Amino acid sequence: MSRITLGALLIAVGLGGPAAAEQPIVISSNWGQVTAELATNSAAKALVQMLPLTIEMDDHLRQEKTGNLPSPLPAASRQRDFSAGTLGLWSSGDFVIYYRDGQVPQPGIVVLGKVTGDVSIFDRPGSVTVKIELAK
Question: Which of 51, 47, 30, 29 is nearest to 38 (CA)?
Fold first, then answer.
């Protein structure tokens, strides 16, 4: 494979994935603070337009915190698997922070981004209020 072809392939792969960083954000609560990098999809871009926002989140299935966004986000491609630290969108207005690895049923989740800090701060029962804002 020529260097030009290999370089073009590496650029195409690097620019096309949903995990490519669009915008860094900070998620904070009384339990601590984490940073995250948002995906490059229409839902993540719409989320940025809502920031800053505060969401009351509840524990669900001892694997995630879920909360309602003030308005729905646009549709984007979905997947069933997630890992600890994945930020997701279940329905168009259900924001999710996964603190364990797992899989969801069809139709899957829209991946909004990935926490780069220690997401285990959310691994406890009960509700938590989080503030989501752009990183400075």
Answer: 47
